[in-house]
Amino acid sequence: MKRTNYCADVTAALLSTKQTLCGWVNSYRNHGGVLFIDLRDRSGICQIVVEPSRPFFKEASAVRSEYVLEVTGIVQRRIEGAVNKNMKTGEIELVAEDFKVLNTSVQLPFEVENSFGVSEETRLKYRYLDLRNPRMFANLYLRHRIAQAARRYLDANGFIEVETPILTRSTPEGARDYLVPSRVHHGEFYALPQSPQMFKQTLMASGIDRYFQLARCFRDEDLRADRQPEHTQIDMEMSFVTIDDIHTIVEGLMTEIFKTAGKELKTPFIKLPFEEAMEKYGSDKPDLRYRLELKNASDVFAQTGFKVFADVLAGKGAIYALRGEKAGAYSRGQMDKLTELVKKNGAKGLVWLKVKADSVEGPAAKFFTAQELTAVKELVGAQNGDGIFIGSDLNKRTVQNFMGALRKELVKELPKQCDWAFAWITNFPLLEYIAEEDRWDAAHNPFTAPVEEDLPNLEKDPGSVRSYQFDLVLNGNELASGSVRNCRREVQERILALMKHSKEEAARRFGMLLNALEAGAPPHGGIGLGLDRITALLAGEDSIREVIAFPKTAQAVCPLTDSPNVVDEQQLTDLGITLIQEK
Amino acid sequence: MKRTNYCADVTAALLSTKQTLCGWVNSYRNHGGVLFIDLRDRSGICQIVVEPSRPFFKEASAVRSEYVLEVTGIVQRRIEGAVNKNMKTGEIELVAEDFKVLNTSVQLPFEVENSFGVSEETRLKYRYLDLRNPRMFANLYLRHRIAQAARRYLDANGFIEVETPILTRSTPEGARDYLVPSRVHHGEFYALPQSPQMFKQTLMASGIDRYFQLARCFRDEDLRADRQPEHTQIDMEMSFVTIDDIHTIVEGLMTEIFKTAGKELKTPFIKLPFEEAMEKYGSDKPDLRYRLELKNASDVFAQTGFKVFADVLAGKGAIYALRGEKAGAYSRGQMDKLTELVKKNGAKGLVWLKVKADSVEGPAAKFFTAQELTAVKELVGAQNGDGIFIGSDLNKRTVQNFMGALRKELVKELPKQCDWAFAWITNFPLLEYIAEEDRWDAAHNPFTAPVEEDLPNLEKDPGSVRSYQFDLVLNGNELASGSVRNCRREVQERILALMKHSKEEAARRFGMLLNALEAGAPPHGGIGLGLDRITALLAGEDSIREVIAFPKTAQAVCPLTDSPNVVDEQQLTDLGITLIQEK
Question: Which of the ends of chain B has fewer CB neighbours closer than 10 A, N or C?
Fold first, then answer.
């Protein structure tokens, strides 16, 4: 290797030394007969000077953007006026003594430094160009460091990395499986795992004690904005633990990950019971960087003459109010937009009021007594110039949900109390009732254990049974979901029965796990953290596609490789399958 | 977490302290009214004592193999006669003060410590039981340590771990692809990658500079004894490097990996040109722990009257001889077996001789002159009591191959010169001619660069062009294959043209890579090392299945999950495919 340094490492400390750099032509200009080339590699940029007297001057003058060069030269200080204080190498330049074009480049559809200005389709199609943008390299490098920090921490804490199969059998977790036809066994299929859930629990039954894996997971979903067909999970499972043990390990892990990104975290994270999260923030993944809280206003309107609220309260529904800081100045148009927002989230309407110096006004103000208006103003802590938003519904969860959506919108105008607000959401119910199918379903994960003392009520009152399920949320994002699992086959089978899986079907779909549970499975629990989302948050990127080297579009297409794509008829024949002719 | 220690960490250093252990009942016995339980976790075994006076004595007496326990007790010294010096915890026992059965176990089909005595099918079906065997845990733990050491080393050397897609487009590397039908785009398919080759080269074009990944690779092959549908590769690629740079990095990597297994390596590894390997060992992955070498005997038999050899030499064929140490004592049956072996490897026959004190004998001895017999004996260095094996064929490669197979058999009787014999096999030809298809094919990898000075002969004399391809072999196993790649589209297209890919087909199959090459790809090269094989060798296991948590059988089946398996008709309909009805 002739290269002696990365471009950005050639600083004034190396003055007068000979260095060899390799990289790409970021830009070039001829200035008074002297050629200046900004040479770029993953570290940054170094300025190359080619004097007209050099034998390679003509060759150097012919370089164009993105040509690949190897340049040997002497590090010298730039002349006074040419120093760039904003650049690591801004004090020096490399005066070329040897110059080689290692490769040329065709003309390209966009400039590396402008790649964020072109369409995503174009960026993905020319991803090799897009990834040369320093912002993209920084994202991938951050992801690398996060992955190494995670492994280092888990290794140091006695976790063992075990690879679980990609070609396996369907893990029934709600989404569709990607299927892989077997050539050797016609008519049979492998499935790509939606998560290593059953394997990691089996590893606990195998006495591995502490397992982790940066696991690729696959979900054939109708793609929403920021979902990918494959994503990576920091996946772990531990034996002989309580919820608190898992929380402590994950808090240490997040601390290490944040440290690698230069950020300090305070632990332990707060624990917020699910019901409290819904009551205060109208969300099971509240953004706790903001103080704003929903207020239950049922008491305020207990005697109200406003028919909508009165009916709601008579029907044991709920009324919540939110302060809208400075929303007293919102236009009718803004208020209509907020009303639209809550309607999209299940509301039938939204009452809004504006707080003035001596009064509370608004189209609905006339329905309320002065006492009610004062009480609701005090309840939410509204000041002169603020707005008040009041929502109601016969179903408490519905009003929590749409007022939570409103809160999410309102906090955009508020000051952040901190940069990183973590919380454990705990005390989820084990099961929820699916009315249309007359059965219970796992509120989160069918393998989560019920709280031990609620076990006797499992069949009597399934909805009342609490679980050892928890989520980790950060700034309004769900980062991870975990639980303590069922370690007894009998309990697992009772839960599956409530979910209306027959014994036969349970054995067919979950057989491996059920067999492992009855063969001496230890108490165990675990969690899976979304690596893509964690990286995107730390990189300050809105989309996880910015932290994945080769992502797919929302249509599950890779424009770079043009996949998926048609295959030879013979390949399908070999697999014993054929296409259905569509009309 | 109540547990204070792993079982095997409770040694005499902890005498008189209170400890809580969790684990599995490895064995139990009632000895004079006192109950002894060997409790096992991943660390090893600790002896638990339950005295008859304890309130939990009855519960403890009911435990059976593989029950899961949590025991708190006081560490005490065993009585004199009960000390077991072969056990880490052999001096102590834990006298139970608190005792809890955390889970029971049904009766199991084999005992953990006897798992290697049952059929592989049974072991894989009850893998959760099989993995409790300390030998299996040691294998997985070794694999974990190797993976961490590899990443640590590569990270320290500036490599960045980048995840490449699993759902992608076919990489045409000889084997069949596993296909995944797209639900969103009916009639189109993703393919699982046979390796990340094209992606890692694209990452070099993206300026990543140094990439690595512990990458899952998929090959839908007709399974041979020790192949798996999916395997893991320590995959890497570097920019601006020569072959020697890659070798140095990999030698450092192997040194670290071996260190983690407590073994010291000497570097640099020897470099053995492909032709020399074939000439001396009859193999491109010779087992260099043994000194035995093939000897070219063409000169010895230049004037021979033995028609077979004379015809071979007249036809520009080759004759090779091998010493068979102490093979003078082999029976006729043994000689017949060796003859069968070479025939299976392409030989028409095998001449064997036995060296006596004053003569060289054997069925074919009468065809040779005394001078020839003496010369061949000296050539191979045979002593009284040895055998001599001579093979010939009109095709030199054929005789090298079958004599190489014979060497592999003969060395089994020889003393090893060292435990770990690494070598780089270098100077492979770029292309080899496929007579049946009248075209050239890549001898290894279609992306390997030709040696620069041979480039002008690429079309004139393709067979003469050398390549920057190399293999890493260890003890007769190919661990890795690597090369410096083509970084110019024009050269890559010329090679693909010799392989009879039309420009259109090349663009269709290799488009992403060709486009990346012409967009300013740097010179680059890399390698992929088989993690499964490396781990198996260091674990002393013959089969890679012993170092994979959940392997598949030779029929590509997982007996634990019973995959592959049938799926619902509806799932296929959703994917736009249907099964071909077989007659």
Answer: C
